């Protein structure tokens, strides 16, 4: 079966880091992700999903070093169902995400000060929605980007270069970006 979760949200608490008997790092934190939608009567409603995230190894140490409560992060991993018995003998359960990769979405300035240069905490950094900012009344020069999934395949690169040269008159050759398919979060 296929079990994959990709979630973008903000930390609900600071990272808790501990080390296992094997010496491997284990970090946990809470993640909150919002979804805004309109009800039938036209009222906008925010629906927030809270989930605990578990990280292992070097990723856990990096999360502990750089993430704080409120930090925006993208987590990619698998869904896990945990069950236990509480102190009163009742059965308890929850879903958690076992992270396989993590991407910090705050800029360095946001992570240091909790806000951007305009004093706002508005949206994603590092390319995720970075065309949106507080100047929403100004017209943006938006140009869609396309990503070649066959980067690394010499035949597809030659074809892409030949096509681009024909469109641009052969004067300018676009840069080749070497991106591994596993690094793309979607």
UniProtKB/TrEMBL annotation:
Motif (Important for interaction with partner proteins): 181-186
Segments of skewed composition (Low complexity): 124-147, 157-166
Keyword Transcription regulation carried by entry: no
An annotated GO cellular component: nucleoid
Domain of life (superkingdom): Bacteria
One GO molecular-function entry: single-stranded DNA binding
UniProt region (Disordered), positions on chain: 124-186
Function of the molecule: Plays an important role in DNA replication, recombination and repair. Binds to ssDNA and to an array of partner proteins to recruit them to their sites of action during DNA metabolism.
NCBIfam families given in the database record: PRK08486.1 (NF006297), ssb (TIGR00621)
Full protein name: Single-stranded DNA-binding protein
